[in-house]
From TrEMBL, chain A:
GO terms for molecular function: 4 iron, 4 sulfur cluster binding; FMN binding; metal ion binding; NADH dehydrogenase (ubiquinone) activity. Residues 424-469 form the NADH-ubiquinone oxidoreductase 51kDa subunit iron-sulphur binding domain. Transmembrane segments: none annotated. This is Formate dehydrogenase iron-sulfur subunit. Keywords: 4Fe-4S, Iron, Iron-sulfur, Metal-binding. Belongs to the complex I 51 kDa subunit family.
From TrEMBL, chain B:
The keyword Iron-sulfur applies. Its cofactor is [2Fe-2S] cluster. The keyword Protein transport does not apply. SUPFAM superfamilies: Thioredoxin-like. Keywords: 2Fe-2S, Iron, Iron-sulfur, Metal-binding. The gene is fdoI/fdsG. This is Formate dehydrogenase subunit gamma.
Amino acid sequence: MKVYVPRDFSACALGADEVARAIGREAERRGISLELVRNGSRGLYWLEPLVEVERNGKRIAYGPVGEEEVAGLFDGGFLEGKEHPARQGDPEEIPYLRRQKRLVFRRVGKNDPLSLDQYRRDGGFAGLTRALTLSPQQIVEEVTKSGLRGRGGAGFPTGIKWKTTLQADADQKYIVCNADEGDSGTFSDRMVIEGDPFLLIEGMAIAGLAVGATEGYVYLRSEYPLARKIFEEALERARAGGYLGKDILGSGKAFSLNLYIGAGAYVCGEETSLLESLEGKRGMIRPRPPLPAIHGLWQKPTVVNNVITLASVPSILADGAEAYARLGVGRSKGTLPVQLSGNLKRPGLVEVPFGITLEELLFEYGGGTASGRPLKAIQIGGPLGPYLPPSLFSVTLDYEELAKVRGIVGHGGIVAFDDTVNLGEMARYAMEFCAGESCGKCTPCRIGSTRGVEVMDRILSGKRDAGTLQLLVDLCDVMIHASLCGLGGMTPFPVLSGLRFFPEDFGYTKADVGPLVEKL
Amino acid sequence: MENGKVDRKDELETILDGFARQANGLIPAFHAIQERFGYIPKEWLPEVARAFNLSQADVYGVLTFYHDFRLQPVGRHVVSVCRAEACQANGSAALIDRLRRKLGVDFGETTANNEVTLLPTYCFGNCACGPSMAIDGKLYGRVNAERAERLLRGMGVLE
Ligand SMILES: Cc1cc2nc3c(=O)[nH]c(=O)nc-3n(C[C@H](O)[C@H](O)[C@H](O)COP(=O)(O)O)c2cc1C
Ligand code: SF4
Ligand code: FES
């Protein structure tokens, strides 16, 4: 008999380690022999810690389970799958999970993420095995045909980026995985690294074969210590198993992979800043051109991709580009692992094809606000994404459709706020965040964000004449159009969307702000 | 005392030896020094610069660019609280107020008895289970003001 208790950063923050120990202790005390498996999280976070019991190949889930409830679960016969207030039944039949279309997350949360055998049994390395039979051009072609776009934020077509690096002539090329995941409200990169690390390794090895890179780095933020531990272990095992190194799977092709830990700078999520940091320097943004795809790490051609982008590649290779491109809508192909957080009843990870409405995500999956108060706004696409009001919740998840309402997909994070939020205060916070994280290379961002905080303070303290508003809007205009990178260039989005949709939170009326913000 | 100092220098050298061979070893070296000593003593920077064949200004520039690195020692315990949006949406403001009041410090400061340093974090990736707070590296989720106070009492740092 097997009992599964997640070893996931969030599940552990809710006591999963203590629950696992209590289950071990209780079983021993009762003379019951069971195998305790530490799986990843299925991403049904309102149910974590979610304990699963497996008997005769069938699983029954119980959650949320606290350490103090473990003895009671044993008494109540949870090992036989008996009734209990926390009993959720077959986890795969929980509607939240059943209705998703999981490609990247198809294994996450099911088994021990560090078992190579298990990974292979569950279809792992099928993509890499196929890639080893193809030419670099064919691999790039497959990824291009799938329509996959970068999941780190910018949504740039992955195949085109890879082609640029493939065509660059150099003695050394690199694959760099952007695992800086700095956006508040996002955790899908963390879940993949903790819950299915071999998937990322496989995706990076395929990228290496595709562009002719023999070395790779994963740049992981320092705020993720458990991901670090799990990934270090996974690297060891992948090397020992022949999936990394000088001769992957006896193919004669080489790919080695290293882990590098960031140091708490949001801007280092931007790819050129990341490369500077990865070279051991200050994370100052590089002007572009040149593109990292041609002059990247140590000036060598470098593919920089987000974790989810790279983790999408194995299934594209294994199942074919067509299968991937059949999912989604318009120019937004495939699935997106959406991360629901903030004030929601059912926060968690929802991987679905593009095309779903925000409404469905927030209410059918998210269950509406946790507080029971009206949902006032969401912030989509990270801390520099706009706030959107309920009147726009009918918009679909789609790069182009969201852009029409000045929204962004970003890294797929959606943070919900109930009606106690003041979006003027939140917009001020966005400016303050930018001021604290600015790399300082360009004036609009370095000085503009500090001025932005001052102007917001004036407005929020009641000094809100027309001139102050004009000043704020002009400042946003300059930051959007003259900043060197997205940090300064996007910080105005929360501010302007707040003014546009919630002017009363700033002490203005629609008539005050309308003509000013509509231009931007 | 004298001996203690010598040992620390030895350890520093060992750490630097390990990382100076890597072209990008400076940031990992700072992490290692801070992990071992709790902070990066400013008077060591000349030695760090020498090991990496960089100017002291370069080394100082890298150190001060990153929020993780500290030039000052911290208290016996470090309490980090998430200040980012998803936790704010779940009421982290009340938690932060309570911590500031009970500890009598602001972010970046250490209590007078040197017990606790309060630090901000911009997201632990625990956004679905916020508000989030870590004590000495152990993360806690769904922490409201009362729970935070209980945790601190449990550590014996509040009367
Ligand atoms: C301020 C800023 C922060 C960013 N942070 C991240 C991040 O944490 N993770 C990420 O993958 N991309 C981030 N990006 C986007 C990267 O610059 C880059 O577009 C991405 O890594 C490319 O990979 P992709 O094509 O797979 O998305 C950020 C961009 C900006 C402007
Ligand atoms: S916009 Fe800000 S972060 Fe980006 S280059 Fe300019 S100063 Fe640096
Ligand atoms: S916003 Fe607080 S953990 Fe992510």
